[in-house]
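Need tokens for this chain, all 358 residues.
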Amino acid sequence: MRRWLLAAALVLGAACDTQRDAAAPQRTVDPALTAALAIATPSDRLVVIVNYDEAVTTSDAMSAAIMNIGSGVIQFNNLDLVAAFATPAEITAINALPGVQGVYANKQLRYSAMLHESIPTIRADAVHASGITGKGVGIAILDSGIDGLYNPDLHYPDKTIQNIKVLANLTDLFTFKGSINKTAKAANLFVENLPNSETSVGHGTHVAGIAAGMGTASTGYYTGVAPGAKLIGIGTGDVLLIFWALAGFDYILDHQQTYNIKVVNNSWGTSGPFDPKDPINKASKKVSSKGMAWRRAARICPIRPTRRSTAPTRPGRTGRRSWPISLPEAFRAIRCTTPTSPRPACTSYPREPRPARC
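Here are the structure tokens for all 358 residues:
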């Protein structure tokens, strides 16, 4: 009887293992990385983002395995991701490591963003009149930077209470096997306490004014949505890449309590189908899980127009723009409006897999 029970247990165990293996998620193939590898030479090194399963491995273990392959690494303090600087052959080896869920290209993201019209349109003026101005709340602007030196609406350090900028040459910051230096942490790769972190683009300053500008320079005409809030500028560079966006999230998570960050603004994006394992989606889910409202621009990805449309269109449909973004589980709809429309231009969002189910 005991032998029969043991044999049955072994059969059941094998069946469970088979089912578990069959149900195991496939490793994601990033189309952008595939395209980059197609034109790379064997000696080229590419910056890639490695998404790993935190239930299977750790940041230190994954970093050590990547360095053993011959690649350089940068870790994150708060995100279950590792940045790697690797040749095409090394990227293939990294993708085969245990626990790796996907390897992604460090592709470029794109910035997107009349305040005097939008404030009454969304009824923020009525909220201001009731005494709610965002006082005491920190808003992180993850963008090109904030001009807190020459812009009186965003003056540093009383309005913009922290202002940081990325360190420029990313490829010098990776740690390789045998280095005497400790592995760099992405959240630490910024210069802090800058009166002006906006060097040329102006986009981050514009967005910061929309969020919390005081209206000083325009006698209140261009007052922001939350003029009582404080700003934290995360200058990710004039050309925004995935790594620096992730490093910005890492910094925000490190300093959430210090600056009472309740809102994270991201007026940028990219194109492509929804991917719950995408590093940006993984990072945004972590930010949301810490109680911060994660705001993302909706109309950011141009597609070839075949008809004129004034409203965003669903991914894959014709129109002026599409909006392949992910949302926290709590969201059920997006409300869009214009100054002249009595009703929202759109009231729902395409049913995509939600990050909370991944």
